[in-house]
Design goal:
about 55 residues
Length: about 55
């Protein structure tokens, strides 16, 4: 059985590109989620400080 080298190379590149795209997308989502948690913690800390002052 003879393997088509061009088709194999193209499909390998496509699978690699899809893998890189999904990885970058996952990293962006993780960064945004972590940033949101940090902002929520900061807001909660400020609220606690304001409530303790009164």
């Amino acid at each position: 059985m003879k393997i088509n080298k061009k088709g194999f190379a193209i499909s390998t590149m496509l699978y690699g590109l899809i893998f890189v795209t999904i990885t970058v997308f996952y990293m962006i989502i993780a960064y945004v989620s972590n940033r949101n948690d940090t902002n929520n913690n900061l807001v909660d800390e400020i609220r606690n400080q304001i409530n303790n002052v009164e």
